[in-house]
Amino acid sequence: MIKILLGLSIFGLLTSTAFSILVLAAIRRFARRRRVAQPVFREPVSLFKPLHGDEPGLEAHLETFFLQDYPSYEILFGARVASDEGMQAARRVAARYPHIPVKFVLTGEPWHINAKVSTLELMEKVAAHDIFIVSDSDVRVTPDYIREVAAPFARAEVGAATCLYRGVADRGLWSKLEATGMSIEMTAGVLVADLMEGMQFTLGPTMAVRRACVQEMGGFGVLGAYCADDFVLGNNVHEAGHTVVLSTHVINHIVLNVTFMNSQAHQVRWMKSTRFSRPKGHFGTCLTFSLPFGILGFLAASFLHHPLLAIGLIAYSVVTRVLMAGAIGSFVVQEKHLLRTSLLFPMRDLLGFFYWAASYASSRIIWRNQTYTLASGGLMLASDADAETKSAPAFTA
Question: How far is residue 90's CA from residue 76's CA, in Å, rounded to a whole number?
Fold first, then answer.
């Protein structure tokens, strides 16, 4: 039995090594793309910013969207009520930049189980332009953000674009580990997916899409029943025959979960969402981790009285993760805390395996203090089966 476990460990290290090789190939491809001049695209765009309450540093994050080096764009802020603290922050920032066209959209109570989609539906109706860039509230961008994210739309076949993000955390170990997962683990998976099959999804922090593609799939409302609206949006655009592009631009994603419990719940929810959205790919994710197999090999080899082999297996699992994190941090996300992130990644790799395992423990998630059940395809069902279906309001403000 111990020999079988040792063999399983070696097999897992081989598969994780194969994944690392794919990551390195994808990094090289990404770096080459970054060196190629971007096409010129200067058509006006509508920037969607759904809001829900206050967040640390929210005003500073929102202000970066008013400082864009782009000739023509508008910003649409959306929230349920005018008294929402996030909406009030947006109004204060907008007052400092009267030359930027801004619209404020109020949804009232959401009529989709995914409340964000209700906001997007109303924003689509009042948006002045035909390129939409949907951006989360907890991101911070540089002045070239719109210019670089919108550039792929210079090609007529491009229906959607998205971009990678680096995690930013300055408080506490758990938030830094979550940031490491964003910068390295998430990036590695996306790069390999793009390398192997091309982009077939978008990433929530930035989803850029043509109005025509949104209308072709039936409007933003078709995303309303799904937890992973970002995956479904990009996948619908891809299935309709349009190209989805991974931009070479990288944004800052601010980690808001500082405590242990909040961080773990957030990451397990992510894993569960992926499990239902991409079940086959998610199942195979277990073969991309390294530390769990290194630890298994260390224990099995030690029990079999092979101390050098034991040390070699766990050392190999750690070193390969550090090197992979260093490569992604240096050449892709341009990580500002490269040493810290590289050294934390082996621990994040181990935790990632436990998050993956936990994703199979149940189909229930907690999102914004509400409990939901995930179903096949990533559908999100209310915990109360008798919940009434709501209809969209007929007004905006």
Answer: 10
Count of CB atoms situated within 10 Å of the CB of 310: 20
Q: What would the two tokens of residue 349 be?
A: 């790799």
Q: How many CA atoms lie within 13 A of 218 on its CB side?
A: 8
Q: What residues are paired with 374 via a beta bridge?
A: 380
3-class secondary structure, 156: coil
Query: What's the predicted TM-score (pTM) here?
Result: 0.91
pLDDT in tens, 144-191: 999 999 999 999 999 999 999 999 998 889 999 999 999 999 999 999
The span from the CA of 119 to the CA of 129, in Å, is 17
Alpha helix ranges (H) inside 1-82: 2-35, 58-63
* Cα–Cα separations (whole angstroms), residue 123 to 114, 261, 304, 358, 395: 15, 34, 63, 36, 11
What is the SS3 assignment for 356? helix
Q: Is the dihedral of CA 77, 235, 27, 326 positive or negative?
A: positive
Locate 219 and state its tokens: 């409007």
From residue 178, alpha-carbon distances to 268, 282, 290 in Å are 11, 19, 18
**What does the alpha-carbon distance between residue 207 and residue 166 come to, in Å, rounded to a whole number?**
16
Q: Which amino acid is at 341?
A: T
Place of tokens 């086959």: 280
- Separation of first and last alpha carbons in the chain: 67
Question: What is the distance of C-alpha 384 from the center of its chain?
Answer: 28
Q: Are strands 243-254 and 139-140 parallel, antiparallel or unpaired?
A: antiparallel
Q: What is the DSSP letter of 39?
A: P
Residue-wise pLDDT for 58-67, tens only, equals 999 999 999 9
Tell me the residue ranges of DSSP E strands in the chain. 45-50, 73-79, 102-106, 131-135, 139-140, 158-168, 206-210, 243-254, 364-367, 370-374, 380-382
Q: What CA–CA distance (Å, rounded) separates 387 from 176?
A: 38
Residue 294, amino acid: G
Could you tell me what percentage of the chain is helix, strand and coil, using 3-state DSSP and rounding each to the nearest 5? 55, 15, 30
Tokens 């949804």 locate to 107
- Give the strand order in the sheet containing 102-106: 102-106, 73-79, 45-50, 131-135, 206-210, 158-168, 243-254, 139-140
